[in-house]
Design a protein that fits this description.
With 69 residues, the chain is an alpha+beta fold. The chain has a domain of 38 residues. It contains one helix and two strands, in the order E-E-H. Strands 1-2 form a two-stranded antiparallel ribbon. The longest helix is centred in the middle third of the chain and has 11 residues. The relative contact order is 0.19.
Length: 69
Amino acid sequence: MNKGITVYLGEKGHLSENRKIEILFTLITRLEIVKIKDTILSVDQSALIIEQNILEFHGGFIKKRKKYI
């Protein structure tokens, strides 16, 4: 999908032998939800996926759209 991600190093809160985890964070459009979920679940069927609507954000890497005049 050629998307940027942020990786957070985390730790599971319940008792487990392997407590270290990576938390991946990305922004996608609503049209990409099904594709990204399918991709995630093909790698890890027990992945926790959280969706949230974003009204506004600032910063990061945003591609400038070409202006067609």
